[in-house]
Amino acid sequence: MVGSEGPLKGVKVLDLSRILAGPTCTQLLGDLGASVIKIENPATGGDDTRQWGPPYVMNEDGTASDLSAYFMAANRNKKSVALDITTEEGQAEIRRLAAHADILIENFKPGGLEKYGLDYASLAQEFPALVYCSISGYGQTGPNAAKPGYDLMAQGYGGIMSLTGDPEGAPMKVGVGIADVMCGMYAAVGILAALRHRDLTGEGQQIDLALVDAQVAWLINEGVNYLTSGAVPQRRGNGHPNIVPYDVYETSDGHVILAVGNDSQFQRFCSFLGQPELPHDPRFATNPARLEHRQALNAILRPALRALATRAVIDGLEALKVPVGPVQTLDQVFASDQVSARDMQIAMQAQPGAVDLIGNPLKLSRTPVTYRTAPPVFGADTQSVLDAENPFED
């Protein structure tokens, strides 16, 4: 197969990041073929997320390994090197590795690497072609630059929690570390853009990326709704700010998702419910009218749907080409034929034993992603990397 080792084969990444945003980025680059060396602090036992469990992969003797599920979610296709960057020897080793690297990514507090001579300004003098990505809570500039950044605080500061949750309940975070994950996605895009510039000009650069900036960027329609109207959006549970009905509805045996995006779909939906007159009511005839009369419409729809079984609603509306779907639990997700067909669950052989991981969603026809190495136990590659003349070679 052409490009069977990935489109980024030959790209070398020195990863000084930990937790989720940086590791999400470098795992994506690794899946695309890049060689990634992950530097971990021996004083702390490595990446913090190695201790974020259970669950852990168990060793043969029944003890827990340092491969927590959380760590494994973002650290395949990497070598683990235990290195103390607070020592002169560790700093010299980082500079040796940086001499071979195309990309360095770190998520220390702004200025945190300066005292070790490993900040961008210091390394750029020696390695002007280096692409250097810095991830922090609030960025390298601004009044909050010195504050620590965590996903939950980014979700709160960046506004997504004010939009999420029951209208009568407390502000609610998203169920996964989505601010970290999206920051990692932006980091990958920025790195590839900077790499393109480096390849054309020979010139490296620093990418300054903040969790909060990324969070604000993906407010998307709700953010621009506010900027356009000046009205602060309110929590609507699962309801959509601009489309009705677009929500989760209770059925007689569960819940169902409706995403009725236009007037013709609404007409077919009402016919299915046995209420073909609803689209002729001026309050519900158009989406702007339905938006204005959201509560009145839901007062009609909710009891009608509660009288029907989930399967009947899904089958009936799919036949009418009205967007509808289930609310699945994770056991249902990973047992689904769709997840299987799309290779979204993969099995790999880690040092303690076999592990199941989530697959990469990118499906490239000529240069597919590859799963070469499972998430490493702490320090597994220290000696081989430090002894190697070319440390990024497999």
Search tags:
394 residues, alpha/beta, Rossmann fold, formyl-coa transferase, domain 3, 6-stranded parallel sheet, 3-stranded antiparallel sheet, 13 strands, 16% strand
Layout of secondary structure:
Layout (H helix, E strand, L loop, with lengths): L11 E5 L4 H11 L3 E6 L15 E3 L5 E5 H4 L6 E4 L5 H13 L2 E4 L13 H7 L4 E6 L14 H7 L2 H4 L14 H24 L3 E6 H7 L2 H10 L16 E5 L4 E5 L3 H10 L14 H6 L1 H13 L3 H10 L4 E3 L3 H6 L1 H5 L3 E5 L4 E5 L23 H6 L7
Parallel strand pairs: 1-2, 1-6, 2-5, 6-7, 7-8
Antiparallel strand pairs: 3-4, 9-10, 10-11, 12-13
Helix pairs in contact: 1-7, 7-8
Indicate the low-confidence ranges by residue numbers.
Answer: none
Class from helix and strand fractions: alpha/beta
What is the helix tally?
16
Beta content:
15-25%
* Alpha carbon gap, first and last residue: 20 Å
Number of domains: 2
> Tally of extended strands?
13
The general outline is elongated
Q: What value does the average pLDDT take?
A: 96
Per the CATH scheme, the topology name of the largest domain is Rossmann fold
Instruction: Estimate percent helicity.
Output: 25-40%
